[in-house]
Amino acid sequence: MERTLVLCKPDAVQRRIVGRIIDRFEQKGLKIVGLKLVKFSQQLAGEMYLMHKGKDFYGPLVEFVTSGPLVAMVLEGNSAIAVARKILGATFGPDADPGTIRGDFGMSKRYNVVHGSDSPESARREIGLLFDNSELIDYQIAGDEWVYARSPEGMI
């Protein structure tokens, strides 16, 4: 099973749509293994978005993600990164397809509601920035046999 980080950014918290966002991932069958409300410091925002340092949108991005609380969650499932990114939709709300989180809730290119890890490497790095191993809970979902097919290798 793969893990990914998803953030409900300050605009999602302020608009009170976090529950609706979480519901999308649960409906799909992804499992929440970590969840918390956090406030990014300038340092944490800088570490989180280090790859964008020097780009014209870096300063406004850091200002945005430090402007209020956000909800961080670690999701687990088969191909969790790719599945979550499809649910999130294109980066900018106006470009995102209806039915995706950004397509349904995003009108701005700057306030884009959510963040999702884009690779296994970034997922590990980002999860490590926000969660200690003790905060990630490994457990079984009783209905997983109705989400994943069984094979000799396990659930697929």
CATH superfamily: Nucleoside diphosphate kinase-like domain
- Run of helices and strands: EHHEHHEHHEHEE
Which structural class do you get from the secondary structure elements?
alpha+beta
The averaged pLDDT comes out at 94
CATH topology-level name: Alpha-Beta Plaits
Total number of domains: 1
| Poorly predicted runs of 5 or more residues | none
Number of strands: 6
Main β-sheet: number of strands, strand sense, barrel status?
4 strands, antiparallel
Shape: globular
Distance between the ends:
9 Å
Q: Any idea of the CATH class? A: Alpha Beta
Total DSSP helices: 7
Strand order of the largest sheet: 2-3-1-4
Give the proportion of residues in helices: 25-40%
Beta-strand share of residues: 15-25%
What's the alpha carbon Rg, rounded to whole Å?
16 Å
Assign the CATH architecture.
2-Layer Sandwich
Could you characterize what this model shows?
Strands 2-3-1-4 form a 4-stranded antiparallel sheet, sandwiched between helices. 31% of the residues are buried. The chain has 156 residues and is of the alpha+beta class. It has helices at 10-14, 18-28, 42-48, 58-65, 80-88, 101-105, 120-130; strands spanning 2-8, 31-38, 70-77, 114-116, 150-151, 154-155. The protein has one domain: Alpha-Beta Plaits.
